[in-house]
Recover the amino acids of this structure.
């Protein structure tokens, strides 16, 4: 009579172990999903920071040319760059200091790029 009791205990233990393994697998998959989402958020934060740096680099390039115009100094040559900390500003189109025109600057930081255009009018 003891044999059937042992058999049902063995089945019960086996079922419990299988359920525990299945539960651990589901928790492991959920944990991997949370970690992957955290990594995506980290990449997004880096991209945002690079985009802001790129914009500020382009803006700094524009401010530098405005100061040169106030001082009646020579403008930078087209395709020249202004190196900043963690970013660069490239002058794509530079107007004449005497006739005015459109100044186009691209700021770059990491993989991010931002372009601004400033229109100069000479009085």
């Amino acid at each position: 009579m003891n044999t059937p009791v042992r058999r049902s205990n063995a089945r019960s233990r086996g079922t419990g172990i299988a359920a525990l393994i299945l539960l651990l697998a589901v928790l492991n998959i959920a944990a991997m999903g949370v970690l992957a989402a955290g990594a995506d958020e980290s990449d997004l934060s880096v991209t945002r920071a690079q985009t802001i740096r790129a914009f500020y680099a382009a803006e700094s390039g524009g401010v530098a040319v405005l100061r040169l115009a106030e001082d009646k100094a020579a403008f930078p040559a087209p395709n020249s760059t202004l190196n900043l900390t963690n970013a660069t500003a490239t002058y794509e189109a530079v107007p004449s200091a005497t006739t005015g025109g459109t100044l186009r600057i691209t700021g770059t930081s990491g993989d991010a790029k931002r372009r601004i255009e400033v229109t100069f009018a000479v009085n």
The first strand starts at residue 81 and ends at 84. The chain is about 55% helix and 25% strand. The beta strands are 81-84, 87-93, 101-109, 112-120.
